[in-house]
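Retro notes (design track)

What went well: tokenization of the new backbones is finally stable.
What didn't: we kept losing track of which sequence belonged to which structure.
Fix going forward: every design gets posted as structure first, then sequence, in one message. First example under the new rule, 380 residues:
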């Protein structure tokens, strides 16, 4: 029997894993990307990403994260490479803790190990943190962080080794909504014709599909900072400190260590709109000051720590910060996959598994991921 021909556009977390999973389901797959897997302009570029199961109540992401953890570990063994660093994740609850309380049932249902820690437990376990204003916390001992760029490159390497085709080229969607569209035109002058097409283009998805996606994907600029720890002081390294998240008026998070890069800290607050292709990646002095002030309060031993490195990445936010996984409403063999919204990377292998199943079995996505949910909200 002839294999199903699939083209996947976008080779980062969503697209790379989707291409690999499609290949393993027996499809013939071509994977296309402008600048290659894990490049610095992709939302999946950079050094590290958090993997955690705490997501609040009534959502599909905790179970997806649990499945992703299994798949990350499976592929570490398969490829003999480390991507997953299980140093734990500490989620601090301050003020209104309905998000954290609502997360507990989801964590139990998904089988994600966790501890509820009272203020006294926190003070004793991590004295380098000032827990003022924190009532309690969720600690996930088997969660942690992932290496981002390295993992993206490894997924595409694995895809090629198993028989997939990777091409670095730009794809054009001109005329894609018309009945005379014959295939995907590439910047090298070739055209790819396939049975199914998957567009997992991160912050570029709205630009490629302005009518169908448009501003349902909004790229925002996000500044990331790395600070130098005190000489000879390992209290802020990953041997002594987990990944942490502080759910306050500004949601801040951080990752210690990672090959001596320093103490990573970022503000999850959505930044200004950003052009991922041509935007200058220079951090904001105002954001730097806010992060420094916070760090001096919550991690007193890091007050006046030197800034040793910075990054500017971007989120591609959907209106409800949920994923978009759906068919193009006018072209049945085109799938649109995006809306990572700052939390998508960890889910890559579970999402790829899901999308490959939908494409190959002609399935229907969860209502929580469909484009129609936005129309329903607008009509209310």
């Amino acid at each position: 029997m002839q294999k199903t021909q699939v083209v996947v556009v976008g080779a980062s977390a969503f697209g790379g894993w989707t291409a690999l999973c499609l290949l393993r389901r027996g499809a013939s797959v071509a994977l296309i990307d402008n600048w290659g897997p894990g490049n610095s302009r992709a939302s999946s570029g950079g050094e590290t990403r958090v993997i955690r199961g705490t997501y609040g109540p009534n959502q599909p992401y905790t179970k997806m994260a649990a499945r992703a953890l299994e798949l990350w570990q499976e592929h570490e063994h398969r490829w003999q490479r480390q991507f997953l660093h299980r140093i734990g994740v500490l989620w601090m609850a301050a003020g209104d803790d309905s998000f954290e309380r609502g997360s507990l049932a989801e964590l139990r249902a998904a089988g994600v190990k966790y501890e509820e820690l009272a203020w006294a437990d926190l003070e004793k376990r991590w004295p380098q943190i000032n827990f003022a204003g924190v009532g309690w916390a969720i600690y996930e001992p088997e969660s942690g962080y992932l290496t981002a760029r390295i993992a993206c490159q490894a997924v595409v390497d694995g895809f090629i080794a198993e028989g997939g085709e990777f091409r670095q080229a730009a794809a054009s969607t001109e005329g894609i909504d018309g009945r005379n569209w014959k295939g995907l035109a590439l910047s090298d002058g070739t055209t790819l014709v396939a049975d199914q097409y998957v567009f997992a283009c991160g912050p570029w998805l709205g630009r490629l599909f302005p009518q169908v996606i448009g501003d349902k994907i909004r790229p925002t600029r996000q500044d990331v900072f790395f600070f130098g720890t005190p000489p000879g002081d390992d209290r802020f390294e990953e041997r002594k400190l987990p990944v942490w998240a502080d759910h306050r008026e500004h949601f801040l998070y951080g990752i210690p260590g990672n090959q001596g890069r320093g103490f990573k800290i970022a503000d999850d607050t959505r930044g200004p709109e950003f052009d991922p292709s041509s935007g200058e990646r220079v951090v904001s002095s105002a954001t730097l000051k806010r992060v420094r002030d916070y760090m001096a309060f919550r991690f007193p031993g890091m007050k006046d720590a030197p800034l040793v490195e910075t990054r500017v990445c971007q989120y591609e936010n959907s209106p409800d910060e949920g994923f978009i996984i759906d068919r193009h409403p006018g072209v049945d063999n085109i799938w649109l996959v995006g809306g990572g919204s700052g939390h998508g990377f960890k889910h890559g292998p579970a999402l790829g598994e899901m999308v490959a199943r939908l494409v190959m079995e002609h399935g229907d996505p969860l209502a929580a991921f469909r484009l129609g949910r936005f129309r329903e909200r607008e009509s209310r």
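Added context from the reviewer: The chain has two domains: 5-44+149-217+320-379, 85-144+218-314.
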